[in-house]
Design brief:
Number of helices: 5
Strand order of the largest sheet: 1-2-3-16-8-4-6
CATH topology: CNF1/YfiH-like putative cysteine hydrolases
Order of helices and strands: EEEHEEEEEEEHHEEHEEHEE
CATH class: Alpha Beta
Radius of gyration: 18 Å
Distance between the termini: 28 Å
CATH architecture: 4-Layer Sandwich
Structural class: alpha/beta
Strand content: 25-35%
């Protein structure tokens, strides 16, 4: 089997063949030797129809055999050979699972995972929600979080920062965090049933993230999660935004809202190679 090609930059929409994939990365993390991470796009893969490209979700109606091939091709492309990418049954909550079993495929119902084990790669599936990757480079720990508006309201990003401290005694200032491709304030229109609870819970942190235009409310969910993590003690210089609005770049990323709910899911992942 040919090794899938991998494009590691995101500028203009690339011209690709069926085996090319896009992997967005935090360039500042290249210095962390042994750390594998990426925010994958939808390019490449063998899925067709509304899932066309690199769909990696078995729960959206796509052919399971095709999804399995997509996952295998993606792992080969990014350098994960013998290890597993552990995923979750994401439910838009704030439950975070500690993963220690290297044979585990799925961590159950959760929207966050954390591990101190090498050769365990944590994977988040998204199609507009915010994928958040955490790393404690000195201690070689990682976490991956799925943050929709409900998870943001419940404070899953803040809870992850606190879990690093309570479980592993890692301070917030030792963490680095990346916020991946997700729906932007240009496209994420919401109603009061979303804005009011968020403002009640997060107060002034929501001010830069919620704006009204022509009587309609829009949220910058990635900005809000970033501000929550910064308020939790992670220095701003260690926070990174990666990638565009998924709804604006539907040819590069799956977008639940733009595609009317019938679409695939892209993978964001993080983990350490065996030392």
């Amino acid at each position: 089997m040919d090794t899938p090609k991998l494009l590691q930059r995101f500028k203009e929409p690339p011209i690709i063949d069926a085996m090319e994939m896009v992997q967005l990365k935090v360039l500042q993390w290249d210095k962390h030797v042994g750390l594998l991470h990426g925010f994958m796009g939808r390019q490449g893969g063998k899925s067709v129809g509304p899932y066309s490209g690199l769909n990696v979700s078995y729960r959206v109606g796509d052919d399971a055999k095709v999804v399995s091939q997509n996952v295998c091709d993606m792992k080969l492309a990014v350098g994960i050979h013998d290890g597993r990418i552990v995923t979750m049954r994401q439910v838009h909550g704030d439950h975070i699972v500690a993963v220690t079993d290297k044979k585990l495929k799925e961590a159950g119902e959760a929207d966050g995972m954390i591990t101190g084990e090498s050769d365990i790669y944590l994977g988040v599936l998204t199609a507009d929600c915010v994928p958040i990757l955490f790393v404690a480079p000195k201690q070689r720990l990682t976490a991956a979080v799925h943050a929709g508006w409900r998870g943001t309201l419940a404070g899953i990003a803040d809870k992850t920062v606190r879990l690093f401290k309570s479980r592993y005694d890692i301070e917030a200032h030792d963490l680095e965090v990346a916020f991946g491709p997700s729906i932007g304030p240009c496209c994420y229109e919401v109603k009061e049933d979303v804005t009011v609870p968020l403002m009640k819970t997060w107060g002034r942190l929501t001010t830069p993230s919620i704006h009204v235009k022509e009587g309609k409310s829009f949220i910058n969910l990635r900005r809000l999660n970033r501000d929550i993590v910064r308020a939790s003690g992670v220095p701003g210089k260690q926070l990174f935004n990666v990638g565009p609005c998924t709804a604006c770049a539907m040819d590069q990323f799956f977008s639940y809202r733009r595609q009317g709910g019938e679409t695939g899911r892209q993978m964001s992942f993080i983990g350490w190679l065996p030392s």
